[in-house]
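Supplementary Methods S3. Input chains for the assembly prediction are listed below.
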Amino acid sequence: MSVGSKGVRSDLVSTPGDRPWLVALLAIPAAFVVVVALVGNTSQLYFWTTVAETVLFALSVNLLFGQTGMLSFGQAAYFGIGAYTVGLLASRQVNPLAMLALGSLTGGLAAALIGAVTLRTTALVFAMLTLAFGQALYSITFHLQAVGGENGIVGIVPAGIGGIDVGQPRVLWVFTAIVVSIGSCILWMVSRSPFGRALRMIRDDATRAEMLGIPVFRYRLAAFVLSGAMAGLAGGLYAFVQGVASPDSLFWTTSGEPVIISLLGGARFFYGPVLGSVIYVAATDTLSQMTPAWIFWIGLGFLIVVLLSPDGILGGVRRLWLRYGTHIPEVGRRRTP
Amino acid sequence: MTAVLLPVVNGVAFAMLLFIVASGLTLIFGVMRVVNFAHGGFFALGAFLTFTLAAGSRLPMAEFALAAVGASLICAALGMVIEVVVFRRIYHLSHTDSLLATYAALLILQGSLILIWGNRPRSQPLPADFGHAVTLMGVQVASYNLLLIALGLLVAVFLWAVLIHTPMGRMVRAVASDRTMSAALGINVDLVFTGMFGLGVFLAGMGGALASPLFQLDSTLASTLVLESFAVVLVGGVGSVLGALIAALLLGLLNSFLVAFDPVLADFSLYIAMAVVLLLRPTGLLGSAAMESR
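Predicted structure tokens for the full assembly:
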């Protein structure tokens, strides 16, 4: 990371490198998956499986929102397309991994078509257009009896792989964790690649990026397609975890959730949506048991974050670190002889 | 004749309801430059307040009107408080950031509906004098639809008269076109913002009050009609009341003719129409370049 006043503004997205805590960052989740798989009860397994599937959806949206600076209010469309693809194939005993790959492919294809049209506009028109296309798809699935109409497709169970029952909660958790890890790793590598750096440059100043020779439209489209494909993958997992693919998963408010999650954790940080997902799923889980008006508290929390700490929890922590943590390196220096 | 007149009357009635809600939305965007997702929340609040003030019973028209006006005024007062407390802090943000703040406000309003009225769906009967059909050129049309048309036109004329032909309207238009210069000329910009937000929210509440006998009242009301009024605002051109009127008529008629054939097409066409207009003319039919900035 560069130093000086500019260094304060640049993000953590690009910082992890040859640091020892990177190993911990990879080892801890792996250990966590094993521990939950071994000792978790059914409701804990369900909770963490939901968190994992939400993490992938939020990371896919944040590739657009946090990293490329594009607010789409229609990512539920690709999420839903993935869920419906899996739902329609569920009765045919196809390998679950193949089903997820297909869900991801259809999500990416739809994103390519819609992105090619919507990305030619300004930020606000883009947000509204993605919303319009998403709602158009929602209204089709809502009325189309071939895909179950208002009720959607119910009773989705993943087929077994080599005699292992993937639908069993413990297996489903490991399966989901592996798929989400692969998806997240792809997104993480993309964000660290020169392409990912170019996306953040587009976010910070699209005109300057264009002047420096970055093909802004093509890069934005590529990000949009990758985001749609990952949302489709997350939607496929959702269909396995919840057992349904319903029109609700395409409704515009579903598109709002990953945006809330990213902002809550910190949209400018790669791990922001991960932290956000854990907090969001836990909060909705707890609040919805306490009050039917849980959405009130979610909205209030979201508003407070937007107004007080627009860079989310990680941003708040980072600011505290920069303000009060500067003496820590000095302590370290004194210790070394 | 029958086959044409009935969808026309129903379409124009729906269009006027959309126009009343959307005109509030377009005013708020035109003056404050904020995409107000919370508008849907005020719409739903207006409907629920009417239900409570009317005690959910079939009332004579005069009493229903009183309940509707009361509900709209409560919405407007609440809107002005929220403008001062919350919205004033988001005007300087980019469009997308302020959009997220208003989305948060929508969730809060939607949650408040559940806190106050619970999860059970409610219904409000039509006012007593408007529950029947009247014969118009040989066709039976709902008299409440005729009332909606009359009120929509009244709102259109009122807004036109106030915005174009009063000193207050000139002040509002001055602030909308250049708030810094207006402030330098001695206009109290904050007051204009609060007032216009109140007027916009009043129209949302009024739309909700008029819609209360037509819809099942539950908290999802906050997130449904708001999208259709977004479509009207964007198609008409952000900030243009006349554009909103034209767009509402176009989309309302399109909707009512398509509903007769195929409900899938009716819902679908609204969003496709919105997408097509935005792609061909990002500023909408009568819009200025407001959407292009920032």
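Strands of chain B lie at 133-136, 139-142. The longest strand of chain B covers residues 133-136.
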